[in-house]
Every structure is written in C-alpha cells, then in structure tokens.
C-alpha cells in the first residue's frame, strides 16, 4: 500500500511475529536482564533485521530506523519508557491550543506527543537541521495525520548564515551543527538562523513550552534569543539537556535562573525550568543576558 505522496503506507514495515516477540521481551524485561538481552540482540539478531519497522508508542505511529539513530533504537526497545520522565514533567504545560517549540526535533518524538496532547488548534514548531532526520520527521507527521506541526529544516545559531555538522557521529541523533567555515563549506552545509527570526517567520507570538537538545550548541541558540526577543515571547517552560555543557561558552542554566527562571525538575542530564512571575524575578536583581560565566 502507498499513500498519495508515494510514501509506503502504515503497516508496510510491520514487525514479524519473531521481531515483535524480541521487542516486547526486551521492553518488559527487568533491568538486570534487559542489558544482556539487548547485547545479545545487537550481536546476533540486529544485522538480520531490515529497518525501518512500523511501531505504535503512546498511541502514535512511528517508522523506526533503529539501525542508524540511537533515539529511534531506544524507541523500539523502550516503548513507553522512552522519555517518560520528560513527558511527565512537561505534559501539565501542554495546554489545549498551546504552542510548543522543539529545537533538535530528531524523528519527532516530542513534537508528535505535544501535538497529540494539545489538540488540533495547537502550534508546534519542529526544528531539525539533519536532512535525513527531517525526512523521517515529516514521514512520522504524515503517518499520524497531524496538521499542526510546522517543520523548519535549519540550524539555530547566533546569526544568519550556514552551519555544518561538527561531529561525524554514527548516530544521526548525536550530530551537532555549528557555524560553517565558509572557506570549506560542503554540500552537507545547512541554513542557520537565529531562533527569534524562525519564530517570527512562523508567526509565533507566545510559547508555552520550549525543548532544546542540540549537542552542545544550546548556548548559541538561546543566549541571543533572550537578549533580542521581547519578554512576551519568552517561554513559560524550558526543557534543556546539559550533557554537553562543557562545550558551552555561557552556562545556560545559570543565565536562565538569573533572568527569572526557576529549576523545577532535574534528571540525570536534563533540566526543566519555569519562568517566575515578574515580581519574583525582580528579587534576583538580575538584568539581561550578556557576557560569559
């Protein structure tokens, strides 16, 4: 079966009975058994499996390319457990008709979950520079019939220009995009824009939740935004990963706290921050974002 766009229809890549058995065995195994099962799968079975596979997680359809993207591999074998902590922390702010901005959308896990929760009248801006992942993101959107997601295939940076992958990672989800060296620009370069420009082009005037995970370039994306954007556009909630904070020129978490955000939840490498009311933020005595830590 094919869709009108030429994309293979849902179920074309359905797991076989034996594949389903392996997937569920690993998902349901206790932690002490899960790792050995996954190791055995990778060493013996994975090379025999053809990607992608069509799976349903949290009521959403995903076409999982598990062989070259770690987040999609995790989706296949973690199922509902994948990013469960994040969704529990963010779902209360996914209000009906709200706005969600996803910087580093990958295959669309957060964007699709936000769109499903917030309903048809919501606005989701999914930003992803990797061409391969953009195509998968759009395919997952089509498979779910979601019309509220705006896809932007660009990198977010401090200025308009070009960006290119700064790390040649085997997994698409681990590639970070930084400013390109104009003298050595390749056909892998992508457009780069400041976040404020992207949001204005999309007609976004208010953000309920912003999630960002761009492999160590979070400071280059967020610090210029908070310097230039009107406070009316500042997100109520920010979810940010800091596993590559050693690459930051500015400590993003500290600067967000300084301008009126409060850390409401901490994971192993994740923070969720909520914007404090103006009266509470004023007590910090902080001004705008500038300089380095």
What does the model show?
The chain is an alpha/beta fold and 293 residues long. It folds into 2 domains: 17-75, no CATH class; 83-282, 3-Layer(aba) Sandwich (Rossmann fold). Helix content is 33%, strand content 20%. The chain has 10 helices and 13 strands. The strands form 3 sheets. A 7-stranded mixed sheet has the order 5-4-3-10-11-13-12, sandwiched between helices. The protein has a 4-stranded mixed sheet with strand order 6-9-7-8. Strands 1-2 form a two-stranded antiparallel ribbon. The N and C termini lie far apart (56 Å).
Low-confidence stretches: 281-293
Number of domains: 2
Give the strand order, joined by hyphens, for the main sheet.
5-4-3-10-11-13-12
Compute the average pLDDT.
Answer: 88
What is the level-2 CATH architecture name of the largest domain? 3-Layer(aba) Sandwich
The CATH fourth-level homologous superfamily of the largest domain: Vaccinia Virus protein VP39
Largest sheet: 7 strands, mixed
How far the N terminus sits from the C terminus, by CA atoms, comes to 56 Å
Counting DSSP E segments of at least 2 residues, the number of strands comes to 13
Helix % is 25-40%
Summarize this entry quickly.
This protein has ten helices and 13 strands. It is α/β, with parallel strands linked by helices.
Task: Give me the secondary-structure topology.
Elements: H1 17-28, H2 31-45, E1 53-57, E2 60-64, H3 70-78, H4 84-90, E3 99-103, H5 109-118, E4 123-127, H6 131-144, E5 149-152, E6 155-156, E7 161-165, E8 177-179, E9 190-193, H7 195-201, E10 209-212, H8 218-228, E11 237-241, H9 252-258, E12 261-266, E13 270-275, H10 278-282
Parallel strand pairs: 3-4, 3-10, 4-5, 6-9, 10-11
Antiparallel strand pairs: 1-2, 7-8, 7-9, 11-13, 12-13
Helix pairs in contact: 1-2
């Amino acid at each position: 079966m094919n869709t009108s766009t030429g994309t293979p229809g849902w179920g074309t890549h359905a797991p076989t009975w034996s594949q389903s058995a392996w997937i569920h065995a690993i998902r349901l195994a206790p932690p002490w058994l899960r790792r050995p099962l996954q190791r055995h799968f990778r060493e013996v079975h994975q090379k025999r499996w053809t990607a992608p596979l069509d799976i349903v997680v949290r009521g959403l359809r995903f076409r999982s390319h598990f062989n070259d993207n770690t987040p999609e591999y995790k989706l296949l074998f973690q199922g509902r457990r994948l990013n469960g902590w994040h969704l529990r922390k963010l779902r209360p702010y996914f209000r009906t008709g709200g706005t969600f901005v996803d910087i580093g959308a990958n295959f669309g896990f957060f964007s699709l979950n936000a769109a499903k929760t917030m309903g048809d009248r919501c606005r989701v801006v999914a930003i992803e520079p990797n061409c391969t992942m953009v195509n998968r993101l759009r395919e997952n959107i089509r498979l779910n019939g979601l019309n509220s997601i705006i896809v932007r295939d660009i990198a977010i940076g401090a200025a308009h220009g070009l960006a290119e992958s700064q790390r040649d990672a085997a997994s698409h989800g681990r590639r970070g995009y930084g400013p390109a060296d104009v003298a050595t620009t390749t056909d892998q370069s992508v457009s780069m824009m400041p976040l404020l420009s992207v949001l204005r082009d999309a007609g976004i005037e208010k953000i309920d939740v912003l999630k960002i995970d761009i492999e160590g370039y979070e400071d280059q994306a967020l610090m210029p935004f908070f310097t230039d954007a009107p406070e009316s556009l500042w997100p109520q909630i920010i979810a940010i990963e800091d596993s590559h904070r050693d690459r930051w020129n500015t400590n993003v978490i500290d600067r967000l706290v300084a301008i009126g955000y409060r850390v409401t939840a901490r994971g192993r490498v994740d923070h969720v921050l909520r914007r404090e009311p103006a009266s509470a933020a004023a007590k910090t005595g902080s001004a705008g974002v500038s300089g380095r830590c």
